[in-house]
Design brief:
Blueprint (H helix, E strand, L loop, with lengths): L10 H12 L10 E3 L5 E3 L44 H13 L5 H4 L5 E8 L2 E8 L17 H11 L4 H4 L2 E7 L9 E5 L7 E6 H6 L1 H16 L7 E2 L17 E2 L4 H9 L2 H4 L11 H10 L12 H13 L9 H8 L2 H12 L14
Helix pairs in contact: 4-7, 7-11
The structure holds zinc ion.
Amino acid sequence: MTAGRTRTIASPLMAVAFATIAACSPGTVGVEAARSDRIPTTTSAEPVDPPDDSPPPDDTLPSDDTLPSDDSEAQLPPSSEPEVPLTQDEIDELVAELTAGGFCDADDVRDEGIVTAMHFVVQGRLQAPCYVDQPGEGDEPADVVVDDDPRLVAAWESLVAVTPNELVSDISLLAGFEPCSTCDTLAFVTILDEDSTFFLLAVDVVAGEDDPDELRLTMMHELSHVFTQRSGEQLDVSALGAAGCDTFYNGNGCFTDDSYIWAWIQEFWPPEIRDTLPADGTVGTEDEGVDRCELDAGYTGSYAARHPEEDFAETFSAYVYDVEVDPALGAKFAFFDRFPEFASIRERARDLGFAGTESNFDGCG
Ligand SMILES: [Zn+2]
């Protein structure tokens, strides 16, 4: 953790992220890098100013324990040292501090009326809800969540059933939302602090309930955006732009030499393709993805062909759940095989009978 930098309160970005979803217009409201995912990753490209009131101290977040303090010490695989479990008292204290710091503030989400529940996550373990939507005038009683949102809990459980704690430990807040009728945002990840240590994972609980296969793939896709942007080890968030970044700048920072994404890019996104991507790290246009997709069967679909991080995320979810894909993706699956932490997730998915999960990938070539 860099001395003198303060953790930023969740409010501004979280409110904007949900307003974006509620407005059915990803990327149009002030979130600079509102990457329009199928599945958007809404991220903050700009460092956020510290809040006026006191944020929680830097040493209170669970993910800090797993982060190297110096970029140059970053090694793969990440967090291979076992995390020392916190006691219940320590967890309670941490959750109280996060709540006091405004990281689960009802005012951030109530106006939009789409968030059903939010939970802090400590060391990969879901805590009691810190926010639950309450019945309002005109709401259908059957649609209203009172104590918690079981759909959200189910979505989380589908993720942690196959994923080791160290890969989910950077998620600090989980939120469920109900979309407006025309939205196709299934889930998104937002970095809520300037040090890129506090991740919100939000998921459309309605779509998730309707299509459990797609939900599993979506959660794994989003998880990969979290662990590939782990501050310090994977991403140097002090980088202010593409200039001076010798690897790849994604709008939030510069990938480290040892990062998963930089390894992926060097192997699968040669300079001539990289040069066609937007310099600010955004995903580019749909047409650009379609064009790359037509030329190369080595993507899961046109969405993956839009950006290296989306390619990684889509392919990773396909890998974990043994989705049937074009043989041209063999080299990409082999990439993941080289990392025991990834192979072990797939093993757990297989053990649970999820191999061959059906997907909506459109395919390429
Ligand atoms: Zn994505």
